[in-house]
Amino acid sequence: MPLLGQTRDQLQQWAERRGLPRFRGRQIADWLYRRGVRTFAEMVDLPAPLREQLATDERVGRSAVDQRQQAADGTTKLLLLLADDRRIETVVLPYTDRVSVCISSQVGCPVGCVFCATATMGLLRNLTAAEMVDQVLTAREHSPGGKVSHVVVMGMGEPMLNYDALLRALRLITAELEISARRITVSTAGHVPGIRRLADEALPVTLALSLHAPNDELRSELIPMGRKWGVGEVMDAVRHYTRTTGRRVTLEYLLLGGVNDTPELARELAGLLRGEIGHVNLIPWNAADSLQPVRAPGKRSVRGFREVLEQQGVTVTERMERGREIDAACGQLVVKRAQPEAVS
Ligand code: SAH
Ligand code: SF4
Q1: Per-residue confidence at 342, pLDDT binned at 50, 70, 90?
Q2: Per residue in 194-210, pLDDT tens?
Q3: Domain range holding 30?
């Protein structure tokens, strides 16, 4: 097990087991999380012989940056090389007032949504908590001011299918990287038990629900998970989340041309929300793979859809698309093959 991913307490216990004073664990936690170092050699307040010993016996657990691409708008996509040679993508999004990082929770994804590039990979494996925390630390290294203020779990994978590691990572990010739960968003395709469990963790992160259709027939065609947990059940779970945490849930609605972008569906969606969830984030589909059986919505249908929702009293935002030219936008993350180029 690498040292990254362990809590301060666990690192202190580890130090004791190694016959070291407990405070060595605390020092190492500071180096790992506060300073974000990649090697034991950099932990200069540890005695030199100990640093050398640790370098042979232990692993820090940071992954290497295999490739880095930057778009004109500053969006930076990082291809990270994991210890078992698998690769994942992480996206750094600098805005004027904050820097957000979009992290992956799995290598690939087993859910199989028809519109998503990650789905074409299938599930290769779950990420560990350390690998999720590592993405935030690495994003910090590639952020303009060396800081990351917001985390969105919206990269590759369905976070609720890797629940235990997700939760460990969220606790480390809030406790050790000092990013408050309010600045963290977890996006789910509608995994009901996961939403209910997360509601009860006393960790008030923002939940984003990928709804994408207001009825089961259409939704389960787009998101196979919709066959297991229907719209009614998902919306109940979301209401439970709001009641328990006091946090507003963000409803994501991906617009697919000619599929789910009609005014009738907008009315059905407004009815479903019944004034309880007052906010919908519309996401125009990003093309990722020419073989995908869907297309982007026209400007007119986006406007029409938006107007119907607004007439019904729903607040609508449109997701600002960033990094599309480097395939870093939502739903475009996919690792097709090993990519040998080194980071420049
Ligand atoms: N598995 C989780 C989180 C990762 S996907 C989920 O599905 O919510 C993050 C968001 O990107 C989801 O809302 C998803 O529906 C959306 N998305 C997937 N493919 C997309 C595409 N091609 N264009 C735009 N958004 C997409
Ligand atoms: Fe998985 Fe989310 Fe993509 Fe669906 S949209 S395949 S759940 S990553």
Answers
A1: very low
A2: 999 999 998 999 999 99
A3: 8-57
